[in-house]
Specification:
498 residues, alpha/beta, Aldehyde Dehydrogenase, Chain A, domain 1, Aldehyde Dehydrogenase, Chain A, domain 2, 2 domains, 6-stranded mixed β-sheet, 23 strands, globular, binds nicotinamide-adenine-dinucleotide
Length: 498
């Protein structure tokens, strides 16, 4: 059986001591094994990155950017292969995998602007014959730890920007679907990146903990579930590292009585069920304002859901695929059961979907639940499955209070035709990414991505302008070149320009 290894100093390495099964979630079969890195192997990766750092740091930004230009072309050239690797291990349909890759490529495009992004800040004559400027210098070796649900896009949020800023990188992808990530890292070498600048270690807690405790790692970017994000943030910062840790979500859409209901239903369908709801920006709760809006939403949504197609990644006519593992399938079904037991109404039931030819796959069909209340377990926790819950409220204020009270604050959206209401909503909602009639307000690559509250631990968001700040350290230089023969007098008070 194919074993997926690590990429260290430009070579694929397999330890062969500990391994974990990798499944095809559509068939339920084990198709590969992923090698789980020991502390020693992770240390080898860190050492390779450390050794590569001096030369890479001194490589002109334009040359670092040129690697990214070539890398972008290779990603486009091999897009179908990458989408197939994602499909085999994650299960997402090819059109969706290509979409995720495209969003990742857009981060590479942004990274191609490194020379402009790293120009720094300059002030002439801050005092007599004195100039001052700030430079943004690389940190050294930085690490990324990524989740299963975007094996291409989320790593691409991190390493292109870290690398063009002059850092070397050690990436620990999800052990559940590691192949596409490893392949993408290999394309970097083909694009001309020197060996050791980018390293990949597959593994579990042992690999992560090694990264968190090793003094050579300067910064850690993490994306995953909230309990692990919190652990990563507290451990990394306690060890003196810079850290950004993006966590889980519970994204609400407010459906106002004046919303274009057909449009809202179409938008919600894709945002709730696309990628089987396994997106941190998935809209998993619709808050309908007024019973008329709620009844219309439930009626039109159930009708539309009759046409949802769930199946294997190979058939592009499918809307979404299986969830990642059998255990996760059981967890999602458990949340649906609990909502029902706690008094909600399962209007469209996806607990036993029929997927011909894939009877052992980890499928959950699209599920719609009405009359969900904030005390229910299925409302409080992230389900991460193709389940849309409807909460009924009477006013927009109540809808906003509900969202603001939730522990997560990743994304949200309002469907309305009322500009004043939309503006009030975006001003006062306690969420990091807000959509106005846009269901998945994932910022484009030249903005930055991040939630509020327990959806993000740390100060800087992912990718975009925040990534330049996260992956560099500011140094401010103040320089005086007095005219020949001029001597400055002694000055004991604080220098000012008064
Ligand atoms: P996860 O937290 O289980 O795993 C993420 C990473 O952490 C993986 O690389 C994993 O190997 C590692 N990990 C897991 N348990 C660990 C432990 N005990 N100690 C150290 N490392 C550990 O997340 P997942 O299931 O792969 O991904 C889904 C989650 O990620 C969801 O909660 C989703 O909302 C979240 N997510 C968030 C964003 C965002 O931008 N906020 C984006 C994508 C996914």
């Amino acid at each position: 059986m194919n074993t997926i290894g690590h990429l260290i100093n430009g070579e694929v390495v397999i330890e062969g001591n500990r391994g974990q099964d990798v499944f095809n979630p559509a068939t339920g079969e084990v198709t590969k094994t992923v090698d789980l890195a020991s502390k020693r192997t992770v240390e080898d990766a860190i050492a390779a990155a450390q050794a590569a750092f001096p030369a890479w740091r001194d490589t002109p930004p334009i040359k670092r950017a040129r690697v990214m230009f070539r890398f972008k072309e290779l990603l486009e050239e091999h897009a179908e292969k990458i989408a197939a690797l994602i499909g085999e291990e994650h299960g997402k349909i090819s059109h969706d995998a290509l979409g995720e890759l495209q969003r990742g490529i857009e981060n590479v495009e942004y990274a191609c602007g490194a020379p402009e992004l790293l120009k720094g800040e300059h002030s002439r004559n801050v005092g007599p014959n004195i100039d001052s400027w700030s430079e943004f210098q690389p940190l050294g070796v930085v690490a990324g730890i990524t989740p299963f649900n975007f094996p291409a896009m989320v790593p691409l949020w991190m390493f292109p920007m870290a690398l063009v800023c002059g850092n070397c990188f050690v990436l620990k992808p999800s052990e559940r679907d590691p192949s596409s990530t490893l392949y993408i890292a290999q394309l970097l070498l083909e694009a001309g990146l020197p060996s050791g600048v980018m390293n990949v270690v597959n593994g579990d807690k042992e690999a992560v903990d090694t990264l968190l405790h090793d003094g050579r790692i300067q910064a850690v970017s993490f994306v995953g579930s909230t309990p692990i994000a919190e652990y990563i943030y507290s451990t990394a910062t306690a060890n003196g590292k810079r850290c950004q840790a993006l966590g889980g979500a519970k994204n609400h859409a407010i459906v106002m009585p004046d919303a274009d209901m057909d449009n809202a239903v179409n938008q919600l369908l894709g945002a709730a069920f696309g990628s089987s709801g396994e997106r941190c920006m998935a809209l998993s709760v619709a808050v309908a304002v007024g019973d008329a809006a709620a009844d219309a939403l439930i009626g039109k949504m159930s009708e539309a859901m009759a046409g949802l197609k769930v199946g294997a990644y190979t058939d592009n006519r499918n809307d979404f695929g299986p969830v990642i593992t059998r255990a996760h399938q059981e967890k999602v079904v458990g949340y649906i059961n609990s909502a029902e037991e706690q008094g909600a109404e399962v209007v469209v039931d996806g607990r036993n979907p029929q997927v011909d030819g894939y009877e052992s796959g980890f499928f959950v069909g699209g599920t719609l639940i009405d009359n969900v209340t904030p005390d229910m377990l299925s409302y409080r926790e992230e389900i991460f499955g193709p389940v849309l819950q409807v909460v009924r409220v009477q006013t927009m204020q109540q809808a906003m209070e509900l969202i603001n009270a939730h522990e997560y604050g990743n994304g949200t959206c309002i469907f309305t035709r009322d500009g004043e209401a939309a503006r009030y909503f975006s001003d006062h909602i306690q969420v990091g990414m807000v959509g106005i009639n846009v269901p998945l307000p994932v910022p484009v690559a030249y903005h930055s991505f991040g939630g509020w509250k327990r959806s993000l631990f740390g100060d800087l968001h992912a990718y975009g302008p925040d990534a330049v700040r996260f992956y560099t350290r500011r140094k401010t230089i103040t320089q005086r070149w007095p005219s020949a023969g001029v001597r400055e007098g002694v000055e004991f008070s604080m220098p000012t320009m008064k």
